[in-house]
Design a protein that fits this description.
about 260 residues, about 35% helix
């Protein structure tokens, strides 16, 4: 593993590069796009495991933090979905410059699927893995709001004097939700590109698959019945590692 900072010197992004542990027929890379807030924390261990497995399969792998999240510059209240898409473009360019990889696969989880699909216009992107996608960004916004109000509270009770929405310890700017609601899910896949939808529940399939099918490219679906849930915490306060799901992603990419 090689930690690094990249991008603008005054607002650097933080990433971790995992070098390939064996040679592949093609010089290929994988870019990992995180989800947001608490989900970023909960998936961190699993993303490192995924990066290690992909590097063992011969890929150059870069996982990185968006502006305002993790170790990148800025505070979380500066988080904007459009900025995160620009961060992903910067990370993609960094991965290509660092490794010379001409074929890049992109993996996104939850809100990270919106970031991942923002890169499908790039000529070097050949495959996209969408882990727990939704048919639109508005669905994510609705889910986040619903999780806040599950205790019967009102939305106003979670908004501070600056208008920031406190979602489980992360202060979201209202503009983040505005951009999320306006974000379409379907990527404009080129005929040469393919996408994998990784889902835990069959009920999540229809809308996301239909949206992708209407926008070209080739789509595969895997519903993985994992015995562990990456977004849950066990009785000891530990995070689960969804190994069957992670292995499913590696197997699809390692062809």
């Amino acid at each position: 593993m090689e930690p690094l900072f990249f991008g603008a010197a005054e607002r650097p992004l933080y990433g971790v590069y995992h070098a390939p542990q064996r040679m592949r027929a093609a010089n290929a890379g994988v870019l990992l796009c995180y989800p947001a807030g608490q989900e970023y924390i909960r998936i961190h261990r699993a993303y490192r495991w995924l990066a290690d497995q992909l590097s063992a399969a011969g890929f150059h792998v870069l996982r990185f933090d968006y502006t305002g999240q993790g170790d990148s510059a800025g505070s979380f209240d500066e988080a904007r979905l459009l900025q995160w898409a620009r961060d992903a473009q910067c990370a993609l360019d960094e991965l290509r410059a660092l490794t010379g990889a001409t074929d890049i696969d992109v993996v996104g989880l939850r809100i990270g699927t919106l970031v991942a699909t923002s890169l499908t216009h790039h000529a070097s992107v050949r495959r996209v893995v969408l882990w727990e996608p939704r048919a639109s960004g508005a669905e994510f916004a609705q889910e986040l709001t619903a999780s806040l109000l599950s205790d019967g509270s009102s939305l106003s009770s979670h908004v501070d004097e600056l208008g920031l929405v406190d979602l489980f310890g992360f202060a979201y700017h209202p503009q983040f939700f505005d951009e999320l609601r306006a974000a379409p899910m379907p990527p404009a896949l080129r005929p040469s590109q393919s996408a994998l939808l990784v889902l835990a529940e069959p009920r999540d399939l229809t809308a996301a698959e239909s949206a992708l099918a209407a926008h070209g490219g080739r789509t595969s679906v895997r519903i993985v019945d994992s015995p562990t849930d990456w977004n849950s915490i066990d009785d000891m306060g530990g995070l689960f590692l969804p190994v069957p799901t992670l292995r499913s992603i590696v197997e699809w990419l390692d062809v």
